[in-house]
Request: fold
Amino acid sequence: MSEEMTQLYQELIMARARSPHFAGRPAAFEHHAQGENPVCGDQVEVFVGNAQVRHESRGCAILLASADLMAEAVAGKTAAEVSELHAAFEQMVETGQTNPALGDLNALAGLWEYRSRIRCATLPWAALAQALGA
Amino acid sequence: MSEEMTQLYQELIMARARSPHFAGRPAAFEHHAQGENPVCGDQVEVFVGNAQVRHESRGCAILLASADLMAEAVAGKTAAEVSELHAAFEQMVETGQTNPALGDLNALAGLWEYRSRIRCATLPWAALAQALGA
Amino acid sequence: MSAALQAGAFDVERIRQDFPILTRTVHGKKLVFLDSAASAQKPRAVIDAMAHCMEAQYANVHRGLHFMSERTSEAYEAVRDKVAGLINAASRDEIVFTRNGTESINLVAHSFGRALLKAGDAVVVSEMEHHANLVPWQMLRDAHGVELRIVKITDSGEVDFASLEAQFADGKVKLLAITHMSNVLGSYTPAERLCAFAHARGAKILLDGAQAIVHRRVDVQVIGADFYVFSGHKLYGPTGIGVLYARREILEDMPPFLGGGDMINSVSYTHSSWARPPHRFEAGTPAIIETIGLGAAIDYVEAIGFDAIAAHERALTEHALNMLADVPGLSVLGRAQDRGGVISFVMQDIHAHDIATLLDRQGIAVRAGHHCAEPLMGRLGVSSTARASFGVYTTRAEIDALKSGLLRVQQVFR
Amino acid sequence: MSAALQAGAFDVERIRQDFPILTRTVHGKKLVFLDSAASAQKPRAVIDAMAHCMEAQYANVHRGLHFMSERTSEAYEAVRDKVAGLINAASRDEIVFTRNGTESINLVAHSFGRALLKAGDAVVVSEMEHHANLVPWQMLRDAHGVELRIVKITDSGEVDFASLEAQFADGKVKLLAITHMSNVLGSYTPAERLCAFAHARGAKILLDGAQAIVHRRVDVQVIGADFYVFSGHKLYGPTGIGVLYARREILEDMPPFLGGGDMINSVSYTHSSWARPPHRFEAGTPAIIETIGLGAAIDYVEAIGFDAIAAHERALTEHALNMLADVPGLSVLGRAQDRGGVISFVMQDIHAHDIATLLDRQGIAVRAGHHCAEPLMGRLGVSSTARASFGVYTTRAEIDALKSGLLRVQQVFR
Ligand SMILES: Cc1ncc(COP(=O)(O)O)c(C=O)c1O
Ligand SMILES: Cc1ncc(COP(=O)(O)O)c(C=O)c1O
Reply:
């Protein structure tokens, strides 16, 4: 396997795409919102409750992993903190510059080279922002 | 005066454009028809009567001279002969090949190099054909 | 003179030398360009013709009396003859230049649709149309009250004639607008049979030839098409130029679409009168340089010859279908008998986007998504597919590279 | 790097080196190209940008996930930013790519006109419009029942504000569509004043900038335009690409014009939803190569600078008016205070066509005819005019050649 190929699709991303930790519609939640990518029909729905986020995602590995890593990263955070993280995330995938504040989310930094795939990773974040009424 | 310049606008053409021999609406005529070039608004009206053609023309030197030389060339000819001459004239201006049958009309042979001016010379002929019901 | 033009037989390696972009690398890998159905690469002859126009013989057309304008007008109008020759139109006046196939269809939807169809008439399209041959008819439906009907395709990706019969049964259908080759499934539709079918029922027919024109000789008179549309950029020509062919009597009856210079006979405030076709439909300064580029592209493919092109692409497609059959978990969509060099596929548990990105990393360009055919995706039960498509420059080795590339993608997802 | 770009000050001889065609001869004479208002010649930078795109970085835009498509999409979208910068649009999303200025106006007439104007509303145009800014409104009038009104010009070739007041008096006018610079008379219209005038009366304004954009810096925000249109090919760019600027709120309210790929959000048989502007208005494969060429043209003129261009053309125009004043029997049409590098004239007893042909014999390209402004010809009391127009590459020597050429024409007619 060439290194270039696995740079973006690294173990962490593939693992979360294959077996997400935060997938599934919770029995109860306070907010939810849906996002769709018109280019491919991929969909994500996020559920917020109890300072936790869960998601139901149908899409590519980048979308699935991004949704799951997002759910992990925002657990226990305030809306303001989420919004800050969201901004940092967008900047990171646009520029390819990793950011210590983003932790595991930095696994998606390779996306900056794939402009049309950036949307796959930011879609869950957009849905979350909508759910939080931002 | 360079030769190229006067090749098309030679003495005969300029003379006929300046002082046409067959201009003016006759008191009586059997057929008439009008032609207009939409590109420039130039107009020609031809009047047929007594085996003679006269014309009223408003336009460029090529149009004026062509109408006048046409009137001269077709005098006394039958409709079939006019139609033959018309065809020969069209071919001559398209190809630049002079044709002994065309006599003075050959003065317009230089037009073939000015594709968009060919219309100026053929307009009177088209009007004449229309007047003769061809 | 291009290498291909000198070659006696079809020699893909010589043809490749005509396309400068094919020597490029992507992510350090040799470019394997399998996205020609979206837009083809350009041969040197096209690039040179456009550059030559701009360097040596350029001015606006039609309205100028000076040398540069006359020569440019001649070159522009000569391409109309070339296009007429390419598709064997009965007359050059049946060829209208547009921006692309999409605009050609919109032109028909506006000029023919609004003026010659009436509320209550029906237009039929198929389940495998590109949005370009669906959305304009939806817009016509919504603005003008015609009915839009959908003819089904079979599971193999072919027109379902029983469904077609049913759609035409009440006699309301006045236009069948249908693809000549699907940009997703690769299926050719039986154009002659469709034309005869429509005409027997008093309907006109528009064929969307955006894909079909690239792979085979098209003869609009043999086919019997009323309208035929395509884009220059898929036929190795530049962007910005497309073609609408329409039979002369129909064009004569159609009012203009866009208004402006060059499409008029005379203009006054109260009333303007229109030029005759095709100029009636070409308002404003046309895509002069691009039309000249299209002319060079037509010369190029004609010199190779459509028999050779079709044979090459048939062999490639067969090879590709064999190769892909060996990739575990891969399914090709559509199994039409009559097909061209476009293959869509999906892979178990691997999203088409991930396939495309991981192939790109290996220098292999394929397309992924709904291919501007969302309703067809629904019919096929997928949300997107990956698509490999071939051109005159595509080689067996590139198809082999696709196969190994796909196997490597599977390893990442293992 | 072009010679002009390295030059500190405006150096027309260095600029001329950027335009390969200017070294050509016509009928054995050096080409004196005075027909730039019809279409400008192309600098090497534009030719190279287009060739480079086709040789090294080409694929269809927007829908591809692979390297060539992503890079091409970036290059294409970067030109939107350049255009926004050129005219100082508030947002890149206010820039719609079309084929030419004509299509831009037709787009507005269809999408804005049919959806946001209603029967009984009035549209005002001036007596000095190009057909491109007249015929689309006539077609809207005839199809949709809006009224079309004509504002008079003064004998000097300027907008008659008394007439404008009168046309607006009944409050029915919802759109003023007017040229920013006449392609016949060379007059600039007072764009800021016209915008303020229209807005004060609740109307929107469209400025036809096909000529104006070439000669001066245009700032749509300072002007206050609602719509601004122009063509790439007059701005030293390729054919096949034009621009519509429209304020964002207006674009948001406008339904699409053409339907097809790239302009949708989602498509189903019963209902399709549209992409947001500007993509809503760009159906199908755009003029990718030409857009990239336009980007190079904008870079080119920006590097020279509009101050320098305007000063050069002002000086040339003044010189030309002086020279032509010396030609016996010659009358220049229009005497606007504020004018650009376009001069129409007639000569006693010599038809404009004959002038053009005889100048061409001397290598001098001017245009003759009605210049797609038939109603203006009527207003001026002529059936056609000869027109000389200037670009960045035009020299005083060329204008002197025009004068001697005209004197020679008179000798033929003596
Ligand atoms: C003032 C004006 N408006 C509109 C146009 C139309 O431009 P195009 O033919 O590029 O659409 C022109 C050019 O001919 C023009 O001079
Ligand atoms: C079948 C089909 N029809 C129409 C189109 C539209 O072509 P264009 O985008 O060049 O207008 C395409 C190409 O995308 C196509 O494949």
Observations:
- The first helix of chain B runs from residue 3 to 8.
